Amino acid sequence: MNARTCLSFGVVLLSLVAVPLAPAQDRIDKPVRIVVGFAAGGTADVMARVVADKLKDSVGQPVVVDNRPGAIGRIAAETVRNAPPDGATIMVMPIGPMAVVPHVYSDIPYDPVKDFTAVALGSTFQFAIAAGPTSGAKTWSEFAAWVKANPGKAAYATSGAGSLPHFFGVLLSRELGVAMVHVPYKGSAAYVSDLMSGQVPAAIDAIADLTELHRAGRIRILASSGATRSTAVPEVPTFNELGLKGVEATGWFGFFAPAKTPKPIVDLLNRGINKALQSPDVVEKLSKLGLDPATGTPEEFARIVASDYAKWGPIVKASGFKPE
Questions:
Q1: How far is residue 43's CA from residue 162's CA, in Å, rounded to a whole number?
Q2: Which of 86, 227, 244, 266 has the largest count of CB atoms under 10 Å?
Q3: pLDDT tens for the chain, residues 1 to 324
């Protein structure tokens, strides 16, 4: 080997040592944290935990759930927005904080479309209206007739002001042509006794929060908001079936990563989450909560988020609601 060859070989070796290897962008190299903006034991928490238990096998890392409750999911959203976009920090979030809350509160510090990467649509659910004994209604038609005959008494309870059920009630009132009064409570459990005793004639909530009382005969679910009937209460018609074409809404729980998370990592997480959601035990657990497991691509979920964000903005604005 002559001097020139030795020199060239040395330069090549030096260049290989001097240039650090770029980190792989198709794998996650540390434990994964699923941030949940609500307390342990709630629906979002259960959703995160049943997926976490399966996801660890797909990503090759431990997966833990990190509950950051408070401020209607804002704390969790900020945590994930500010995390490194490496796939190690993701979140489960329902539709409300991503599609409704930013239109309600002007000080929300995140943009649900620009500040996050949609990873996977985890599950969907429907909303429903249920009647207590006040109206005597056993069907939606009977309740609608009662509302129109008693506009001064027409009211509906929800789990809180500024919630998605609140604005679904606004949408429903618009279709009915009667401005039903919104009666907000502090959580779903808070309005139950008033609904059953007739203090408030109806309630609007996620169908899972009404199903048990409906099955027990304590209240009656009159209609649901989905494109098809709910598997939880298949005997209940949809608003669409009843001729209210503009009253369709599907809630969801979805998985998000920080903006600019590399596409290969997003796809890795998406495949792992979809695989988890197809496990029979996961399907069973989610079904008991009134959730329908849903799979799809990150791009499909991103379109759902953007569409719902655009849909609920005008409804919130038209309601005239201002948070106290």
A1: 19
A2: 266
A3: 555 544 454 444 444 444 444 455 678 999 999 999 998 988 899 999 999 999 999 999 999 999 999 888 999 999 999 999 999 999 999 999 999 999 999 889 999 999 999 999 999 999 999 999 989 999 999 999 999 999 999 999 998 899 999 999 999 999 989 999 999 998 888 899 999 999 999 999 999 889 989 999 999 999 999 999 998 899 999 999 999 988 889 999 999 999 999 999 999 999 999 999 999 999 999 988 889 999 999 999 999 999 999 999 999 998 999 887
Spell out the alpha helix ranges (H) of the chain: 3-18, 43-59, 74-81, 95, 101-104, 140-149, 164-176, 188-197, 208-215, 263-277, 280-288, 298-319
Q: CB–CB of 264/252 below 8 Å?
A: no
Q: What are the structural domains, with CATH classification, of the chain?
A: 32-124+250-319 (3.40.190.150), 126-224 (3.40.190.10)
**Which residue's entry shows tokens 């959580």?**
187
Max Cα separation, the chain? 103
Alpha-carbon gap, residue 13 to 7, rounded angstroms: 10
SS3 category, 202: strand
- Rounded to whole angstroms, how far apart are CA atoms 244 and 115? 35
Rg from Cα positions in the chain: 24
Burial of 293 (0-12, 13-18, 19+ CB in 10 A): buried
